[in-house]
Amino acid sequence: MKRKGFLKKLIGALCAGMLISMPVTVNAAEKEDVLGTWTGSSWAGVTFDEEGAQDAWNKKPYTMESGSLTVTYKSSGTTETIDYDFWRGYKINDVAEDEYADAVLYKIIEPGKTMMAWNVFTEKGMSEWQTYGSATITKVEISDTDSADSSSAGPVSSGSGCDHFYEWSITTEPTETTDGESSYMCIYCKNIKAKQPVSADAAIRKTLLASIKNAEAGTTVTFDNKAWLCYPQGVLDALKEKGDVSLKTDFTYGGNNYSFTIPAGSDYTNLEQADFYGFMYLLGAFNGSIVE
After folding, report:
1. Could you list the residue range(s) of the whole structural domain that residue 244 is in?
2. Is the pLDDT assigned to residue 56 strictly greater than 80?
């Protein structure tokens, strides 16, 4: 498998982006092993439904197609051939030279209970797939009488004095340096049936978008959070909507310091359509430079 593309580093909860509803191809015989909410490390938490797979950043299709992919681990340089049962993303096969792609591979360990997940990607001009590592995710256990959709759920008789009515809510707000937590909690007695992490990137994204929105016309917003190496589409949308604010980005990659500025009123039509834009790609698109 070969792909030409730009770094779109999703692993490690780097980016938070727009929701994109896409169709999903599912083998009906395997739906029961996949559908539902799965929790794990901040980047790997995901909810599979009939329309796609929603993680902390966006919604993408998933395909019930097994296979194998040889990947190189960024941390150690070692290679491994991953056998996967299905994958999430837009394309991992027959990718044209002028395209880019990334995906999450899933291996079912215990059907309906435990899976392994790998986020895989390649950088521009590379023929190999890379990964930063794997994560174990577990399915959130919700009884048949409960519903993760609080808009259609009704009170559930518990026999303990409370007719539970559960809904998801953030019980610990994320900060820019620490993950928060969301709980599936009864709105009456506060009984909690399940929990899942809320990525710290949600707080980083919220702060950045507010800075763009509230900036005075003609000024430049500077972003230098070392945890990020890409922007979600939502950041570019915010700049386009504001129209009169520039965004300067300082980042480090491969041991070098870089900087680029997206000028106010930029034309984005020449950018490749994507959910996320790697900083190295934007560096070239907006004539950035190495910082000595």
Report:
1. 201-291
2. no
